[in-house]
Amino acid sequence: MLHNYLTLALKVLRRKPFYTFISLFGISFTLMILMVLTSLFDAGLGKNQPLTKRDYLVVSPYAERSRTEPDTMLVIDTLTLAGGEVRYDTTEEIAQNVVSNSIGPMSYRFIMDNLVDLESAERVAIYSDGDFTDGFIDGRKFTFSSYYTNADYWRVLDFDFLYGAPFNEADIEAAAQKVVLTDKAARIYFGELGPDLIGREMALGRRTFTVAGIVSRPLADSPMFGGDIYLPVTTADARALASNEIDGGFSAIFEATSPRGRQAIKDEIEFISQNFQFPPESDYNGLRVSSATVIEGYAMATVQEQDPQKALRVLFIPLSILVLLFVALPLINLINLNVSRVFERRSEIGVRKAFGAEPRDILYQFIFENLVITVIGGAIGLLLAILLISYVNANDLLGITRLSLSYQVVFYYLLVILLFGLLSGLLPAYRVSRTNVAAALRG
Amino acid sequence: MIQLSNISKSYRTDTIETLALQHLNLTVPAGEFLSIMGPSGCGKSTLLNIMGLIDEPSEGQVVLAGQEVTHYNGRRMARFRNEQLGFIFQSFHLINDLSVVDNVELPLLYRKVGSKERKRRSLDALEHVGLSNRAYHFPNQLSGGQKQRVAIARAIVGRPNILLADEPTGNLDSHMGDEIMQILLRLNQDLGTTIVMVTHDERMARKTHRLVRLSDGERVS
Hints:
CATH class of chain B: Alpha Beta
Number of strands of chain A: 13
Strand order of the largest sheet of chain A: 4-5-10-7-9-8
Shape of chain A: flat
Structural class of chain A: alpha+beta
CATH superfamily of chain B: P-loop containing nucleotide triphosphate hydrolases
Order of helices and strands of chain A: HHEEEHEEHEHEHEEEHEHEEHHHHHH
Number of domains of chain A: 2
Radius of gyration of chain A: 31 Å
Radius of gyration of chain B: 17 Å
Strand order of the largest sheet of chain B: 6-7-8-3-9-10
Shape of chain B: globular
Number of helices of chain A: 14
Oligomer: heterodimer
CATH architecture of chain B: 3-Layer(aba) Sandwich
Number of strands of chain B: 10
Helix content of chain A: 40-55%
Distance between the termini of chain B: 20 Å
Largest sheet of chain A: 6 strands, mixed, barrel
CATH topology of chain B: Rossmann fold
Largest interface: A-B, 25 and 28 residues
């Protein structure tokens, strides 16, 4: 049966090369774009290293300090003149007005004093970003984006260590001058990559660090792990470490014991924010330490919105609609082509029914035929996507972000192909399965 | 056996009602080769379609092989057509994209018959019509007579009791028409298949057991 359908499907495709070309073009092009888009999202948001624990993490990139003052408004409701005397009724409203606020990363001390001992967090990663450090070798200078991190940073984020190991608590305690760098940074600085780089020295700023580990560069850029080099937090500028201010250069990532545990962390951070006691001389009297899941954090950073739920809506609703439209157009086109194609085969359908085919046999046959063309289109689309992705990666067209074809992406892709095939085949097949036999055989 | 009692068929368009068949009674005993003649538009094909369960009468009763089939649902009708009936059409209605043998096995696709068995029976049927050497050709590589022989092989591959032929020689020259007629006569004789044939050709009709004439939807003989 399937053999018969398959033979027929392939014959039909070969008989109408132009129709086949249009269909295949539509399918493969759409699927290719979808695949690249999925891959782009997967690079930024997928559970790839170092974000394998993505669903366990709560990110706190910054804290917002604000000053709120009561604002009194006196409204005169009625004014009456009685016996030469003016009388009036008033309403008094007292509102809390934010008069000033300031948002930014936190100081190391603030995080250490207030946030590292959350009961609901398994561990806390602390990191600073945005620093640049000059590296010197053989009279040449390279500027590296540098991160200062604690030891748990390497447990919360599971970087792919190509060689060596991260620095540990003892190194932090001793402010050991060790460095972890990406494979790209290693190639730039040493001009090579290999296990013998471990233990080599790097001149960074005015100090010399020993290479402790080399990690492969993450797929996508992220404020959480955008560094070329990573140094123990205790080797950072002493004044920055000692600062008593709330704001500074550091952020935190909390790891929960389970994905559901993230809410407890958020609640605890909220509690700490609300009960924070400002010193009397402070300019501020309100604190909100941000807390969001990784995906919320991504949306917040992308659309520059501080409310996680709103950020998700602003980012994903228009995006979903766009993707839906993008898929719908070729889908409708394909349905249209299919309708006219199957009606050319009325006589065949008439004969099949005369010889005992039931409507569902006809339905299955035409859906199957449509799946054949979609699968062929899908295969071409996959090939095109692989070519496009390797081209994008080879030329760094998306900056730091590199696209990859993970199992997940390919899995979603297969799902989309199946759905596409079923959807575009269903309506024409249904209509044709209800063909009147006598009429089909006459015409 | 085919038994049609009091069969009427009308087609209704927006304004007019056309009566294709009027209170027609016809009995075809098992094993008979019957031909139906009449001018164009007299309802011959409609009658054949009603016997073949691909059209429903507006009125009357159809009994085929002892079963009252008039009110069968679509599924039972499809099953019945598949197992009991074979069709031969004037314009052959072969599927051009399939090889001869794949065309012939079509009725068996809708039964639970394994692919080897399907092929064996299709080749048998082709041998019966003298075309086994063309099994892997395609319809457009065949002459009209050969195409009709493939169509006959397809009609008999499922061993139906009743064969319904709608002007099977209508598109063929007289020589090829004779050949086809010989095959049909042999099927009727050797296998005892009941055959109902609609034809315009008096000469062909005379070779069958009985001739029924229709005019304006009514039997005239």
